[in-house]
Amino acid sequence: MTAPPSARLLHRHLRGQWPAVRRLAAWSAVESLPMFASGLLLARAVDQGFLAGRTLTGLGWLAVLAALYAVGAFATGRVYPWLAATVEPLRDSLVTEVVAAALRRMSDRAPDAAGAGVSQVTEQAEAVRALMGTALRNVRQLLSAGAAALVGLALLSPPLALVICLSVALSLAVYAAFVGVQIRRYRAVIRQAERIGEAAATVVHGVRDVAACAAEDRAATAVGEVVDAQAEALRAYARTRWVRLPVLALGVHLPLLALLVLSPYLTAHHGLTAGQIAGGAGYLVTGLQPGITVLVDAGGTLLLSLAVVLGRLAEVCAVPGAPPPGTATSESSGIEADHVTFAYSPHAAPVVEDLSLHVPEGTHLAVVGPSGTGKSTLANLLTGLLEPQKGKITLGKVPLPRLAPAHLRSKITLIPQESYVFAGTLRDNLTYLRPDASTPSLDEAVKAVGLLETVERLGGYEAEIPPGGGGLSQGERQLITLARAYLSPASVIVLDEATSHLDPATEARAELALASRGGTLIVIAHRITSAERAHQVLLMDGPVPTLGTHETLLTRNQTYAELVGHWLT
Fold it and tell me: What is the pTM of this model?
C-alpha cells in the first residue's frame, strides 16, 4: 500500500532527524510509566493496604506511584531538547523545498505562483513547524498516556479492559466516519487562504494601475470576495466539530458511568475487587479521557490541520513529469549554447531562436542590443533558470540539467538589475554566497568594486541593514551585490544590467574587477562602454545574433555602429 503524499513528504524531511526522533520516543515511553502503573498500584494500595487494615502498605504502594511520577517528570524535561532537534530542522528543510517549488512555478510562468508561494512559505510551512511542535509536545504525551492506560487496564482486569476497549473502539469508529468530511472542509480553508495571497499579490503588483484607473473599489471587492469565501469555509469546517460530543460520550463518559453504577454487581458476581474498580476508574479519568479529548479536540484541529497542510505542500512541491535532479559536476567554466530556441509559450514567437554560442573559460563577453531582443532571457538560459525548448546549454561540456543543483549554483552566479539586499548585517549581505569568507577577503572585494566609501559610511561590516535596505541608494545596493559576486566561489558571473544605477567610472571599475578575478564574465550591457571593455561582443538584434570584437563589429556591422553612435550621442 502506497503512503499518501503528505506522509512521504514528512518522512523525507524527518529522515535526517531519526536519531532525535528515537530519543524522543524513548523518553516518551519513560514519561508514560506513571500512567501505565497508576491503576495497578492504586488497586494494590486499596486491596492489600487500606481495605486490609494495613495502612503503611497502602501508603507504600502510593509512594511507589509518587516515585514513578517523579521519574515521569524527569523524562518530560528530557523530551524538550529532542523535540527542538526534531522540529526546527524540519521547518528549515521544508521551507527550502517549498521556496524551490515556488521558484520553479514562477520560472514556468504559472499563474499567481508568487502570491500562493508567499502563503505556502509564510503560513503553511510555519504552520507545519508549529503543529508538529504542539503535536509532539502535547498530543504525543496524552495519546501515549491513553495507550499506557489501556495496557495497564488489560493487566488489571482483562474482562473490564475488553468492555472498555469495545466502547473506545466504537467511539473511534464514529470519529473516523467524520474525518473525511473534516479533511475536505479544512482543505477548502487552506486553498482559500492561498487565494487571498493570489488576489492580494495581483492588486499589489498593479497598484499604480489601480490608482490611475480609479479602480480601488473594484480591487477591494475582488479581494473581499475571496476573504468572504474563506470565512464561509471556516464556518463550514467549524460545524464538523459537533462530532466530539458522541465520541467523548461513547469513549469515556458511558464506560465510567457504567463502571460506577455497576460496581456493586461487579464486585458481588464477577469477582472484581474494590481496588480494581478504583484502578479502572483511575485509568478512565486520568488516561483515556485526556487521550480521547485530545483526539477529538486537538486531533480534530491540530493533527487534521497538520495532515491537510502537509498534503497541500506535497502537492505544490511535486513537479509532474519533472526529471530527477542531476548529479554531475563540471571541471571548467566554458559555456556553450548549441542551436538553442526558447519561447515563453507554445504559440508565442521565439525570443531566442537557433542560437549557437561558445564562451570559452576566462572570456569577458558583453551582450548588447535594443530593448526586447532577448538579452535577459539569454542570461536566464545561460544560468539554468530557464530551459530551452530546443537545443542545449552546457557548462564545461556538461548539459546544465545534468549538473547537481548545488554544484550549478556554486559555479554560476547571476546578478540581476534588481539589487537584493537582505535584513541583517553588511557582512551577512556580502558573504551570502560565501559564508566562510574572511575579513581580508571582504576588504579585497570591497576595494575592488568601489564599495569602501559605503562601508565606512555605514560603520563597518557589522552595521545592521534594515528590511528593504534602509537608507542605501540604488547604486550602493548594486555595489553590495557586485561585491557579493566578487566574493562568491562562482567561476561564471552573469551581470544582467546589474550596474544600471552606477556612474560610468564606478561601473568600469566594478566590471574590470570582476573580469580580473578569474573565470568567465558575461555582461548584459547597460552602456556601450561595457562592450568596449569586453573580449567578445554578442549583438542581439534580429533572428541571427552576431558575435565579434567591439572593433570588428563597429567596422563591419551597420546596426552595431548605429547603436554605438546612439549611445555616444
Answer: 0.58
The answer to whether 463 and 429 are in contact (CB under 8 A) is no
- Whether the CB-CB separation of 424 and 464 falls below 8 Å is answered with yes
What does the block give as the cell for 270? Answer: 464477577
Whole-angstrom CA distances from 415 to 64, 290, 383, 461 are 68, 56, 11, 21
DSSP letter for each residue of 276-295: HHHHHHHHIIIIIHHHHHHH
Encode 459-486: b = buried (16+ Cβ within 10 Å), e = exposed: eebeeebeeebeebeebbbbbbbbbbbb
By the 10 Å C-beta count (0-12 exposed, 13-18 middle, 19+ buried), 206 is classed as: middle
Convert the pLDDT of each residue in 114-149 to its tens digit.
444 445 555 667 777 777 777 777 666 666 777 788
For 131, list phi and psi in degrees, rounded to 5: -70, -40
Q: How far apart are CA 316 and CA 337, in angstroms?
A: 31
| CA separation for the pair 557, 537 (Å, rounded) | 12
Residue (of 299, 355, 409) closest to 540 by Cα position:
355
Q: Report the C-alpha gap between 476 and 461 in whole angstroms.
A: 14
Nearest to 478 by CA among 456, 500, 503: 500
How far apart, in whole angstroms, are the C-alpha atoms of residue 173 and residue 167?
10
Beta strands, E only, 343-397: 352-359, 364-368, 390-395
| pLDDT beyond 70 at 303 | no
How many angstroms separate the CA atoms of 513 and 449, rounded?
6
